[in-house]
Specification:
The complex is a heterodimer of chains A (478) and B (543). By secondary structure, chain A is an alpha/beta fold. In chain A, 44% of the residues lie in helices and 12% in strands. In chain A, helix 8 links the parallel strand 3 and strand 4. In chain B, strand 5, helix 13 and strand 6 form a beta-alpha-beta unit. In chain B, the strands form three sheets. A seven-stranded mixed beta sheet of chain B has the order 2-8-7-6-5-3-4, sandwiched between helices. In chain B, strands 9, 10, 11, 13 and 14 form a five-stranded antiparallel beta sheet that branches. A two-stranded parallel sheet of chain B has the order 1-12. Chain B folds into three domains: 49 residues, Orthogonal Bundle (Helix Hairpins), CATH 1.10.287; 225 residues, Aspartate Aminotransferase, domain 2; 117 residues, Aspartate Aminotransferase, domain 1 (Alpha-Beta Complex). The chains are: A alpha/beta (478), B alpha/beta (543). Chains A and B meet through helix 1, helix 3, helix 4, helix 7 and helix 8 of A and helix 4, helix 6, helix 7, helix 10 and helix 11 of B. Chain B: Belongs to the class-I pyridoxal-phosphate-dependent aminotransferase family. Alanine aminotransferase subfamily. Chain B: Pathway: Photosynthesis; C4 acid pathway; Amino-acid degradation; L-alanine degradation via transaminase pathway; pyruvate from L-alanine: step 1/1. Chain B: Homodimer. Chain B: GO terms for molecular function: L-alanine:2-oxoglutarate aminotransferase activity; pyridoxal phosphate binding. Chain B: Its cofactor is pyridoxal 5'-phosphate.
């Protein structure tokens, strides 16, 4: 056999990505057998019934089939502003959706992204430092590929984290340097934890090169305060780290105490010397927010204080992939410059968007409250993003049963949950957690009208499970 | 001065003690200090070589974590000429042309550097785009007016596809290998093409064929001791990907004199040489039809290659993205899977990965980023790893997936759109064949130029016998001779081609790659300008 398992790149074997791992595969098997499965393993809104926004789909449909624009009856099917916008985006391409664009993305769309960033933050943004990518994940991989030279290079990653980071660092042969978020402080980030993690890594000979923040957090949902962001940026300045700001959930905010504020804005506001010296790469996407266009694969990253020659190298590597897909670039353009008041499609667009965001806010609360009403379950409020990450305090009996079944305790729990209720979640071990403390991640995306039933189903399973395994010997907990 | 230099050196040593990897600047100062005095010197620092020179702005920002000398050296090492230096110059010229029209002997830049048909006027296939539009905005399917604007079979196909997507949600992440129903259609298409069954579970859909190639390189390469046999000349995705993954490219030379033929003796020779150097050769990459060389392999040749891979325990990576671009009646495309199966080699006998894309053929949908790899002959534990890699990126874009399924199962006789589909397809293919012939003939007429015919793909790769004077002038300009020629060509005519050194070639030979893609009406002007330029170039440099 030319290719045996033993001969594979070790880095590939080591990497893990639980979001589509064991639980998901088991759920898919059960689905094939006819069981009704509620997939809450991935932030995939449209798969759970969220409808796409009408306006962007109209625009992109016209871009897919430009000959429609020549048909005198096109106005019967498409509003005038969608038609105008389709013509606008087609004019930005050099041959429509079917031609490779500039490897960094269409200049016209990057300009619109820059204008969006400027409006959002109040500071200028350079389109030349914005690269569009096939999803934000590809951008993260490109930047980490640039930063990681070998296992001597460490990347600070929050625990719990979205496992794209751990998987990519593994694949690239680097070292993950964890910093723990504090569950008892609403998943807060304590700079002292950061300092400890860095010191420990350095004592092991690791060169810590970058720090990842996910804001709002995934799976934890917390929104960083401005003060926190300042501390982090100052920390990166002192420790010479490039900050990777994963801000893909910036439009998913469910409380008013801590609105989203971008890392770039805080950095610029800090003034000299920080604003000219701290290196920052910020990531965004069309997959989340109220758009939820996961299947398009559209994202971008913006670079701040990255030397021109390094930007060139990143461009060079991007050019090997030729170009990001053009339809998604148009979705990105539309996302950053949506219909305005006065536009024909504005009312419908505003109605659809508002409807989705308000419902997400309600579902965040329903889920948090639902989990908190369950025996041995404690759940921090979902301040932002799309997930709920309850802590499940497993009794010793359950830990023993898991061991006997050869499963990690939260995997054991989640498999039982799946089999009993059809709810497919991701065990907390897929995201990292403190030793001996167990969680699961679910999304807040199931349809609002189905939520009460889902939470009832969960409570019934959980409370029965706890009773079954409760032998009075204590529980897992922080 | 000496005290200043020593104290500077001491400062840098202190700084570099905090960061283990020194930059070039500190090394220079350290050696100054060492020469003049017994100042302490760091024990042999690791120097990362860089292909670019140290510019002031980068070395002065040595306090930043991410600078040219501290990024991944594999990134610095890899090259991709298709969008390299020549293209950057062309883009600057194009900008300047807008304001300085009269400064140039041409009025437009013609990009012949990249296989990007729709950027040069090729139209997409109407039926495919109708289906995509309907899947983009599914509300259209509920409107009666839609029937007036779309063909009936495109509406039917859109319904069929949407029924295969859970919840008809085209905006949702799909299965990480691609939507099952679409993979079924692709498998059926492969079976119809080859006469041998294909399993939808063997198919991994990707954003273009290139990510599939990267995945395989990632899987196969653990260190520079792992080698991949690649054709020379090759499409530089392979060399770049191998460099990025830290492996070794093991070249095998195609024979220009015999129409870019692939000799097994050459494969054997290169394999043995690599092994003698301690390299474990893991795979053989074959591009058929070839890029940049355009040759279509004879079936007998393919059988030899399959046998070779089986005998030597190599994975066969078959880049077949140009399978629908064959322009000569005496050659036909045969997939390596078909060849292997017809030799009696099944799943247990040979590891084969076949790559296909929606970017080429007659559909030319580069910007949609669609493609797949069909992975056969791997054990399930290896396939699990491929699945895992695919899952980290969740899935490829849905629109590209839909298009890939359409490409592999286009309209059939009797379908409403069949006649117009066939007319569009044959129009494009016959025009490509015509342009291939016209440009090939024109190139062969040039002094000192020989050009093999383009049997397939989208390129011509002429060999220029550059006079010594030209080579000397290139050296003086610190440019590779073929790049020197291509830059002169660009500046004189506005035509952008890629120097052969971007694809590698037999040392001492010079080529350039030119696409056959400009529209037919532009071809005469291109031929004239190229001919005129070449004549004046030879007049200037003739020995």
């Amino acid at each position: 056999m030319a290719l045996e398992y033993e001969l594979l790149n070790e880095n590939v074997k080591k990497c893990q990505y639980a979001v589509r791992g064991e639980l998901y595969l088991r759920a898919s098997e059960l689905q094939k057998e006819g069981k009704k499965i509620i997939f809450t393993n991935v932030g995939n809104p449209h798969a759970l019934g969220q409808k796409p926004l009408t306006f962007p789909r109209q625009v992109v449909a016209l871009c897919q089939a430009p000959f429609l624009l020549d048909d005198p009856n096109v106005g019967m099917l498409f509003p005038a502003d969608a038609i105008a916008r389709a013509k606008h985006y087609l004019s930005l391409t050099s041959g429509g959706l079917g031609a490779y664009s500039d490897s960094r993305g269409l200049p016209g769309v990057r300009k619109e992204v820059a204008e969006f960033i400027q409006r959002r933050d109040g500071y200028p943004s350079d389109p030349e430092l914005i690269f569009l990518t096939d999803g934000a994940s590809k951008g993260v991989m490109q930047i980490l590929n640039c930063v990681i030279r070998g296992e001597g290079d460490g990347i600070l990653v929050p625990v719990p984290q979205y496992p794209l980071y751990s998987a990519t660092i593994s694949l690239l042969g680097g070292s993950l340097v964890p910093y723990y978020l504090d569950e008892s402080e609403n998943w807060g980030l304590d700079v002292n934890n950061l300092r400890q993690s860095v010191a420990q890594a350095r004592s092991q000979g690791i060169s810590v090169r970058a720090m990842v923040i996910i804001n709002p957090g995934n799976p934890t949902g917390q929104c960083l305060s401005e003060a926190n962001l300042k501390e982090i940026l100052r920390f990166c300045y002192n420790e010479k780290l490039v900050l990777l700001g994963d801000e893909v959930y910036q439009q998913n905010i469910y409380q008013d105490e801590r609105p989203f504020i971008s890392s770039k804005k805080v950095l610029m506001e800090m003034g000299s010397p920080f604003n000219k010296e701290v290196q920052l790469v910020s990531f965004h996407t069309v997959s989340k927010g109220y758009w939820g266009e996961c299947g398009q694969r559209g994202g971008y990253f913006e670079m701040t204080n990255i030397p021109p020659r390094v930007v060139e190298e990143i461009y060079k590597v991007a050019s090997i992939a030729l170009s990001p897909n053009v339809s998604a670039q148009i979705f990105m353009g539309l996302m950053v410059s949506p219909p305005k008041p006065g536009d024909i499609s504005y009312d419908q667009f505003a109605r659809e968007s508002k409807g989705i965001l308000e419902s997400l806010r309600r579902r965040a609360k329903i889920m948090t409250d639902g989990f908190n009403s369950c025996k041995n379950v404690v759940c921090n409020f979902t301040e932002g993003a799309m997930y709920s990450f309850p802590q499940i305090r497993l009794p010793t009996g359950a830990l023993q049963a898991a061991k006997q079944a050869g499963k990690v305790p939260d995997v054991f729990y989640c498999l039982k949950l799946l089999e009993a209720t059809g709810i497919s979640t991701v065990p907390g071990s897929g995201f990292g957690q403190k030793e001996g403390v167990f969680h699961l991640r679910t999304t807040i995306l199931p349809a609002e009208e189905e939520m009460p039933e889902i939470m009832d189903s969960f409570k019934k399973f959980n409370d029965e499970f706890m009773t079954q395994y409760d032998n009075g010997f204590g529980y897992s907990r922080m | 001065m000496r005290r200043f230099v020593i104290s500077q050196a001491k400062n840098l040593i202190d700084q570099t003690r905090r960061r283990p990897l020194p930059n070039h600047k500190s090394l220079r100062l350290l050696s100054l200090a060492a020469a003049s005095d017994s100042a302490p010197v760091l024990s042999s620092p690791r120097l990362f070589s860089s292909s670019s020179d140290m510019s002031g702005s980068d070395s002065s920002s040595s306090s930043l974590p991410v600078t040219l000398d501290s990024i991944n050296p594999k990134v610095l090492k890899c090259e991709y000429a298709v969008r390299g230096e020549i293209v950057n110059i062309a883009q600057r010229l194009q900008e300047d042309l807008k304001i300085n029209k009269d400064a140039y002997p041409f009025d437009e830049i013609i990009y012949c550097n990249i296989g990007n048909p729709q950027s040069l006027g090729q139209q997409p296939i109407t039926f495919f785009r109708e289906v995509l539009a309907l899947c983009s905005h599914t509300a259209l399917l509920d409107e009666s007016a839609t029937h007036g604007l779309f063909s009936s079979d495109s509406i039917d196909r859109a319904w069929k596809i949407l029924d295969q997507i859970p919840g008809k949600a085209t905006g949702a992440y799909s299965h990480s290998q691609g939507i099952k129903g679409l993979r079924d259609a692709i498998a059926a298409g492969i079976e119809a093409r080859d006469g041998f069954p294909a399993d939808p579970n063997d198919i991994f859909m990707t954003d273009g064929a290139s990510p599939g190639v990267h995945m395989m390189m990632q899987l196969l390469i653990s260190s520079e001791k792992d080698g991949i046999l690649c054709p020379i000349p090759q499409y530089p995705l392979y060399s770049a990907s191998i460099a990025l993954h830290g492996g070794s490219l093991v070249p095998y030379y195609l024979d220009e004199a015999s129409g870019w033929g692939l000799e097994i003796s050459e494969l054997k020779k290169q394999l043995e040489e690599a092994r003698s150097k301690g390299i474990t050769v893991r795979a053989l990459a074959v591009i058929n039809p070839g890029n940049p060389t355009g040759q279509v392999l004879a079936e007998e040749n393919q059988r030899e290659i399959v046998d070779f891979c089986k005998k030597e325990g190599l994975v066969l990576l078959a880049d077949e993205v140009y399978q629908e671009n064959v322009y000569v009646p005496d050659k036909k495309f045969h997939s390596f899977k078909k060849v292997a199966r017809s030799m009696g080699y099944g799943e247990k006998d040979i590891c084969l990965v076949s790559f296909q894309s929606i970017s080429k053929g007659y559909y030319g949908e580069c910007g949609k980023r669609g493609g797949y790899m069909e992975v056969t002959g791997f054990t399930s534990d290896v396939r699990e790893q491929i699945y895992k890699l695919a899952s980290v990126n969740l899935c490829s874009n849905i629109s590209g997936q839909i298009l890939a399924s359409l490409v592999m199962s286009p309209p059939k006789p009797g379908d409403d759109s069949y006649d117009s589909y066939i007319a569009e397809k044959e129009g494009i293919l016959s025009s490509l064949a015509k342009r291939a012939k016209t440009l090939e003939e024109a190139l062969n007429k040039l002094e000192g130029v020989t050009c093999n015919r383009a049997e397939g793909a989208m390129y011509l790769f002429p060999c220029i016998n550059l006079p010594q004077k030209a080579i000397a002038a290139a050296e003086a300009a610190k440019t590779a001779p073929d790049a020197f020629y291509c830059k002169r060509l660009l500046n004189a005519t506005g035509i952008v081609v890629v120097p052969g050194s971007g694809f590698r070639q037999v040392p001492g030979t010079w080529h350039f790659r030119c696409t056959i893609l400009p529209q037919e009406d532009k071809i005469p002007a291109i031929v004239n300008r190229l001919t005129e330029f070449h004549k004046s170039f030879m007049d200037e440099f003739r020995d």
